[in-house]
Amino acid sequence: MLGSLMRDWLNKHVFFPLGKRLSCFDPNHVTAWAYPLAFIAAYFIFVHAWLWAALFVILSSVVDNIDGAIAKANNKKTLFGSYWDAFTDKVQEVTILAGFALAGYPTAAFFAAVLSLLVAFAKARAEMVVPLGNPDWPAIGERAERLLIVFFTLLFRPFWPSCCGFDLNVVGLYVLAAIALIGLIQRFSFARELLAKADAEKQKNH
User: 44 pairs with which residues across the strands?
Assistant: First the structure.
């Protein structure tokens, strides 16, 4: 939810005006830049260069917002662009979490990755069962919030290596997993309500 509010403010006051200025760029090409940036972030996580990793995590996130801003500000939105952007989001997130797994945090990274992907799947699968339109899905544990947790964990890790006797990276990954779990439960419950209403409408019409 905090991530949504911050994203809305940044989109309106930062990214949309920037998107207007970058109208000469193809938003799909800009989206592609998130891949090398995410892989570089994962590499720096792997070698324990936490501050560099934090920098490239935030850069990959900024690029992910700029592509959408270019598309919206210059009427370049396409169905493939929307799909490509969402697909890239997941690859970016899994790549960064894979960096943690290879850096010595496999269990925490596994739970963070699986629960983060399930949050997205809970919504996508419901919309595969029946068209749901565009309802306002529960927002806690969204990707923006998860990336902020990763960013601040990496940013503070060199100066605050542990918390309550645990490696700060482990704490951050489990916090991410816990928030994703809450979001998953919220979305599952919301999907159940929407699908129950769709079933009721179907029976009513028959």
Answer: none
Largest Cα–Cα distance of the chain, in whole Å?
64
More confident residue, 103 or 206: 103
Q: What is the pLDDT of residue 8?
A: 64
CA distance 151 to 100: 12
- H/E/C letters for each residue in 94-120? HHHHHHHHHCCCHHHHHHHHHHHHHHH
Residue 167: closest CA among 102, 100, 113 = 100
E strand map for 10-117: none
Q: Which two tokens stand for residue 97?
A: 């979490």
Q: What's residue 142's pLDDT?
A: 78
Per-residue pLDDT of 115-149, as tens digits, reads: 999 988 888 888 777 777 667 777 677 788 888 99
Each residue's pLDDT tens digit, 72-81: 877 778 888 8
> What is residue 159's DSSP assignment?
T
What the block records as the tokens of 71 is: 């598309």
| CATH class as words, domain 2-197 | mainly alpha
* pTM for this entry: 0.86
Q: What is the CA radius of gyration of the chain?
A: 18
Whole-number Å distance between alpha carbons of 41 and 48? 10
**So where are the chain's domains?**
2-197
